[in-house]
Task: structure prediction
Amino acid sequence: MDRDRFGMDTITLAGSLTAKLAAVKRAGFTQIMLSARDIAGHPEGEDAAVAAVRASGLRVTGFQVLRDFEGLSGNLHDYKVDIAQAMLRMCRALGADLLLVCSSTSTHATGDRDALARDLAKLALLAVPMNVRIAYEALSWGRHVNQYMQAWDVIARAGRANLGLALDSFHVLAAGSDIGDFVEIDPARLFLVQLSDFMWRETPSFEERRETARHFRVFPGEGAHSTEVGAMLRAIEDMGYRGDYSFEVFNDDYVQLPLDVVTGRAARSVQWLTGRLPRPGTPLRRSPSVAR
Result:
């Protein structure tokens, strides 16, 4: 498996954007997942942030994150469309071809799946002139969409080629989702896989999932779900996915450590993960139900 398919997320690292980019590159990674705060919060402005990213030579995996977009109406809907358009313009400036969208947690959002699909289809249409794809992710504490198959259903209803699924191993594990359902997903519409683990076995409540996700994730191979993360990676590869993997590891301890210590842990995680896949040339198992 090509190591270049693995990248890091800036949210895992402390320091300036320039320092993060340099540390990720020193660790041997070739791509980076960026946050809107990296760009909007740069002390020298947006243009300087974009220049730093381009000068790093790292490919931008994607840009995050648009929250609470779908299912709103009236002024709230118009407001979120305006925010989305601003984020799409930032994607274009960075050369990022992927915008991550998390399922809504808003109490003001409808749960009607056709309405959710219409909103995401509208977002995907707005993204076309920017050459940006939209990756929709089910937060495990999402108000109406908190399982990845629910997200896949909304995507299928929307019917836009540049709208696809983002899978996050934390949310899959925390929600107790069945990875056997991966065979129902068209691998061409799986746009991103985010990887992390955590240190305890269960997160029964939405509040506990949210707190764990935002503060206590660890790299794959470091947590309590090594077997499940390895099985998830094999299942994703078996379904025919050949896209990017990004370490999305929110951890309060990691942002207090030197950059090279954290990127070194990420590099070891890549070795751990790839060691759990068949060697090159070994045929992958495929379900006959997966579209070829």
Remarks:
- The chain has ten helices and ten strands.
- Residues 32 and 275 are 22 Å apart (CA to CA).
- Residues 3-274 form a domain with the TIM Barrel fold (CATH 3.20.20.150).
